Structure to design on (220 residues):
């Protein structure tokens, strides 16, 4: 999807990331692997960190935020199981890296970031890279976007203090919500499927994300 000219060095590093950090650690969804082989992660980090863009760890992106470890991004997307014509909701745009991956994997992406200026910057970057099926909204991600619901896939890239019922209400029947839930220091990644209007919850892995700030999250 992206029309930019890629650096061969980054292509090699990205392919290695996919093979060593994702495939060899159990990520099997070929659509997710292919998307992560395409999307230029180095474009979503500060220039000072570009040489580390494909390392197996999170990186700071400013404003007390991070771009998540590639494996965690791949795992969350595999658990989400997005489809080509899905409408996806992302809570926590962050650097917009995962947003770009969702744009590769789905038909429409709505992403929410709290700070208006940073939301505008993220959307501009996505447009520059050729992702025209994304809208970045400034607002309280913890309450979602009921006016755009229902969504086929909802992914939360920040730690919720409890099950996010307001977001679950915006999920389409039979589809999935992926969210880390717990205290600010430690969470469990949950996969939630809507079955006859009720949540069916399974736990994936322990994790650690920045807190979800908002009405249904932590207080700032």
């Amino acid at each position: 999807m992206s029309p930019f000219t890629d650096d061969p060095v980054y292509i090699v590093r990205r392919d290695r990331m996919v093979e060593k950090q994702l495939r060899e650690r159990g990520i099997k969804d070929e659509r997710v692997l292919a998307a992560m082989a395409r999307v230029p992660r180095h474009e979503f980090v500060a220039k000072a960190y570009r040489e580390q863009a494909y390392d197996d760890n999170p990186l700071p992106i400013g404003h007390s935020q991070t771009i998540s470890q590639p494996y965690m991004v791949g795992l969350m997307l595999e658990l989400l199981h997005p489809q080509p014509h899905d409408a996806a909701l992302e809570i926590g745009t962050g650097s917009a890296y995962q947003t770009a991956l969702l744009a590769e994997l789905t038909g429409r992406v709505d992403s929410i970031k709290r700070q208006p200026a940073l939301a505008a910057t993220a959307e501009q970057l996505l447009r520059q890279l050729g992702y025209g099926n994304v809208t970045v909204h400034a607002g309280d991600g913890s309450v979602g976007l009921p006016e755009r619901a229902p969504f086929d896939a909802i992914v939360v890239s920040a730690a919720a203090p409890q099950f996010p019922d307001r977001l679950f209400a915006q999920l389409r029947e039979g589809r999935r919500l992926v969210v880390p839930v717990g205290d600010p220091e430690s969470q469990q990644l949950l996969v939630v499927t809507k079955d006859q209007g009720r949540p069916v919850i399974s736990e994936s892995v322990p994790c650690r994300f920045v807190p979800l700030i908002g009405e249904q999250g932590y207080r700032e």
Q: What stands out?
A: The helical segments are 8-22, 30-38, 70-80, 97-105, 116-128, 165-168. The chain has one domain: 8-207. The longest strand covers residues 171-183.
